[in-house]
Each structure stands twice: as C-alpha cells, then as structure tokens.
Amino acid sequence: MKGAVFLGDRKVELREFPDPEPGPGEVIVQTRASGMCGSDLHVYRHQPGGPATQGDRIVGHEPAGVVCQVGQGVTPDVASVGDRVMIHHYIGCTRCDACRLGWPQMCTGAPFQAFGTQVHGGHAPLIKAPASTLVLLDPALSFEAGATIGCGTGTAWGALDRLGNVGGETLVVFGQGPVGLSATLLATARGARVIAVDPEPARRAHARRLGAAAVLDPTANDPVEALRDLTSGGAAFVLETSGNSAAITAGLQSLRPWGSICLVGLGGEVGFRVEDHFRSQITLMTSWTLSIVAQRRCAEFIATRELPVDDIFTHRWDLDDVVEAYANFDLQAGGKGVILFEQDA
User: The Enoyl reductase (ER) domain covers which part of the protein (predicted)?
Assistant: First the structure.
C-alpha cells in the first residue's frame, strides 16, 4: 500500500509499505479519513536528518475508519469487524496510573508512542492499532468528524475542560486555525461568549460562521486595548492556540483579575515579571490534547447537539494529492485539511 512520509524541508512523498497484519490485541482499521494537524507542520518544515524525517514512518495522527481485521485475543466487546472507530493516537504501557486514567501520553511506565511518529500513522489506506486505542464513532458523525475529534477538535475540548465552566463568561480564543475554530464552536455550544482573534480575514469570517460573538484583527490596533474594550476591562478566560509569542503576551495582559489562560499552541515563548501579574490572582495552565475518555465525551457532545464540526474543514484531498495538500495547509490561511479514502481502498 502507499503511505505518506515527511522528509523535512517541506517535502512529503508517497512510498510503498507492506499491508499491516494484526498481532495479539491489535486490529487493522481501513482508513476513511485522516486529518491534517497543525503540529504536523513542525515536522513537515523541519530540517532533514532526524528520526521523523527519514521517510520510514507513515505520518498522520488523526485517523478514523472501519475495523477490517482483528488479532488474537480481541473480543467482540472490545472491537469487531465493521466497527466505525476513531483512534486515540498515543500508546502507553497500559499499566501505570496515567494509562489507566486514559492518559497514555503521560505514561510513566515506558516512553509513549504516537501514531505518525513512532509507529505508522493514518495517511495510508490501512493502519494497525492496539484495540485499546479505539473509540467507537457514533453513526451520526462523519469519518471526517471522527478524525478531527481525535486531535484538533479534541485538543480544543481538552483545553476547555482545563479552563473549567466557561458558560456565561467571555472567552478569548487567539488563533482561528483548526484548533481555534474548534474551540470557538465548542465553547459557544458550552454557553460562552467567544471573541476570536486572528490576522487572517478568512479565518475571522470562518469563526463568525461557527458562532464567535466578535472577531478581532490583532494587527489592526493594539489587541490588548481592543480586548479590554470588548470585555469591559478583561476576559474571564483566554485560550491561546496559535503558538505565537505576541499572542501569548497579549492573552496574559487581556485577563481580568482571577482570570485563567490556557496555552495550547506550540512554538511560542513568553516572559513576564511576576510582579506585573502577582496581584491579579490569574491562573496560567497548559493543555496537551485530551484523554481517551474525553475523546469519547467530546464526540458524544458533538453528536447529541448536532454541532457542525464538519464545517471546520475547508480542504479535502485524495492521498495521491498529498504534496499539494501539505503545500496548501502550510499557508495556514484556511481551516482544516483532511485526506479522504474511498470505501473500497
């Protein structure tokens, strides 16, 4: 089968790989949709030579599809051929407290493995996975929805869980890429008044369509002053998804006393004098994707409320077009991209 690999320096290509076979406790999933994640761009742009750019791992950590084979020991109550599934994209030891709580990325028993990095990912027609990583996908949700719930939209859900009850409060979301748009959609459904911040007009318009009460171009004026005007002195909650250092700083300065900020975007740096924020009693936190339990709950929330999560996607691609797909996604001017596979692939 063909699978996509990253070679660094903005190069991606298709290579031939043997079809996977399930071992004990494993399944083979026929991929229907494999999401493109902003975190992939860090590897896509990276200088060649590291383990992630050697071309021996199929990339893509947001797969959803249908179970087509089960390995020894996989019982029907765990997985059956024909199940529609998402995949929680981390593999831990399964024995430590973190794994038992559904957080294999926090595994203390062994270095965790991630699909698309340490093990083959979803940009291929078939993917092998431990049955323990599967999350059933509600028939009301598309495979595209399942793909983004696995990481992009799921990351927004995890961050909102970290922030707490945002209902009835103002939440400022910096960055309206796939994670930020997901946060705008989910937080609005949770009862928050969302102010979406992004320099791209198309992304601000997209945020409006997904429920943002107000949008802001941070390059037009001082974003801190503008946000204080929009929030009558400061926001209760800030979610930073862009990984932009200036955005993190602006987010901190936009909080009201007792406010909370959650950092999700990668790549940024921030420094501040403790004295400048000491008396504000603010809370600063990070959020790293979500647990497998939260992935299921996020999917249930979206399905029961019939949220238009598919509208986060602006670009859909065939695997054969993966070079063009990542060149377009690298522009970071639209919403989310996804690789789609035919049913008989």
Answer: 8-339
Look at residue 102 and tell me whether its pLDDT is greater than 50.
yes
Tell which residue, 25, 29, 58, has the closest CA to residue 136. Answer: 29
Which residue in the block uniquely carries the two structure tokens 């109550």? 77
Q: What 3 state SS string does 47-86 have?
A: CCCCHHHCCCCCCCCCEEEEEEEECCCCCCCCCCCCCEEE
- Taking phi over 0 as left and psi of -120 to 50 as alpha, with beta for the rest, 60 belongs to left
Distance CA 198, CA 201 (A): 8
Contacts of 62 (CB under 8 A, 6+ apart): 34, 35, 36, 37, 89, 122, 147, 148, 150, 151, 152
**Intervals of CATH 3.90.180.10 along the chain:** 2-151+290-340
pLDDT for residue 47: 81
> Please, which residues bridge with residue 281 across strands?
none
Distance CA 86, CA 67 (A): 10
Out of 88-97, 269-278, 333-342, the most confident range is 88-97
pLDDT of residue 345: 42
Q: Where in the chain is the domain with CATH 3.40.50.720?
A: 155-286
At 149 the three-state DSSP class reads helix
Cα–Cα distances (Å) from 115 to 20, 77, 138, 246, 301, in that order, read 14, 24, 22, 31, 25
CATH number, domain 2-151+290-340, options 3.30.565.10, 3.90.1150.10, 3.90.180.10, 3.20.20.70: 3.90.180.10
Q: Where are the beta strands (DSSP E) in 63-148?
A: 63-70, 84-87, 90-91, 113-114, 126-130, 134-136
pLDDT at 267: 87
Digit-coded pLDDT (tens) for 285-294: 999 999 999 9
Tokens matching residue 78: 């765990």
pLDDT tier, 338 (very low <50, low <70, confident <90, very high otherwise): very high
pTM comes to 0.95
Higher-confidence position of 268 and 192: 192
CATH superfamily assigned to domain 155-286: NAD(P)-binding Rossmann-like Domain (3.40.50.720)
